UniProtKB/TrEMBL annotation:
Catalytic activity entry: an S-substituted L-cysteine + H2O = a thiol + pyruvate + NH4(+); L,L-cystathionine + H2O = L-homocysteine + pyruvate + NH4(+)
Gene Ontology molecular functions: cysteine-S-conjugate beta-lyase activity; pyridoxal phosphate binding
Any one GO BP annotation for this protein: transsulfuration
Cofactor(s) listed in the protein's UniProt record: pyridoxal 5'-phosphate
The protein's annotated pathway: Amino-acid biosynthesis; L-methionine biosynthesis via de novo pathway; L-homocysteine from L-cystathionine: step 1/1
Polar residues bias (residue ranges): 1-11
Keyword annotations of the record: Lyase, Pyridoxal phosphate
Protein name per UniProt: Cystathionine beta-lyase protein
Region Disordered, residue ranges: 1-25
Chain positions found as N6-(pyridoxal phosphate)lysine: 211
Composition bias, Basic and acidic residues: 12-23
Amino acid sequence: MNMSKNAPTTDQKTDTRLTHAGRDPASFHGFVNPPVVHASTVLFPDTASMAPGASRYVYGRRGTPTTEALEDAVSELEGAAGTKLATSGLNAITLACLSCLKAGDHFLVVDTAYGPTRHLCETLLARLRVETEYYDPTLNGDIRRLFRDTTAAVFTEAPGSLSFEMQDIPAVAAAAREIGAMVLMDNTWATPVYFRPLDHGVDLSIQAGTKYIVGHSDVMIGTVAASERAWPQLQDTHGAMGLHVGPDDVYLALRGLRTLSVRLERHASNALAVADWLAERPQVAAIRYPARADDPGHALWKRDFSGASGLFAFDFVPSVTKAQALAFLDALKLFGLGYSWGGFESLAIPVRLQGIRTATAPDNTRQSVRLHIGLEDPRDIIADLAQALETALG
Ligand SMILES: *Cc1c(COP(=O)(O)O)cnc(C)c1O
């Protein structure tokens, strides 16, 4: 067996990277996985070893073999100059924003960004005198119209949270680069397995690892992977914030990463089967899932992404009332009612866009539901949806 370090090669396929990235058995007596290093203090043999740059590890917060293993694996997967870990997905968003924004900057944020991202912009970033402007996700290259002399960064997310609009990420990134603005992307939906933001001009690729990387609904963690030009500032900001993720959580994320692509494949095929079934129900007006040919974002998804995850939403026909939509959710037995997604189990939540869209006018006349399709047998998932539709809507 080859125990030597798996030098990353550019021609390795994603599944091969997922299996080998961030592992160096030869450094750990041949054990397949890295140790879970619980550490604050690192002891040095002498004062010379304490000089800056003289030792690989200096203090727990500054990195351990466990944190490095996950960072290296994500960097390889993302094609990044470097990766830093954060204590949650939202913390990763905060880290990425703070690493490229300063007082007086203009910050363009997609209107369909994850809700708490907007909260960050409207509180902490506003207090630091960063001016956020929300933009329509369908602007794509026309985002140029909104550029100012002070525009420092553009935040993207595709598909959008809750409503699933696609963005032309290469077009947004190309426009931003014309004025030297940093491009951030919350890529939690596709994961780097199905879309590699840095290959498309993004500088800071954000993952709520809590979702598919961890995959088992038991850990909160985030990652930010940086391009060459964004990496120095990301490193500095991470250090300044004193961020550190506990080794057990890092280890569970690394374990989840190994099976990311096989889980995603099943999530996607189950989700497509369920979405196709739902599309035929008389109570359903539209499915919001870029992987389906009738989705407005399908062409962009097909051009840029190599797969879909198990998260989508659907709209009821206008005659379905709010009370009926909630009764439908309450009637579900297999689906859990709960925030988050990306774990092995199916989840559902009501979608409310009121108050979390300002640059676009969402259709608030229809009731919508977001589903995360888990790894259960799709026939059982469909049976649950069928009985809930019957119970709530007749
Ligand atoms: C859940 C989520 C986050 C935040 O992740 P946490 O780990 O819950 O903080 C960020 N972005 C998207 C798109 C998410 O769905």
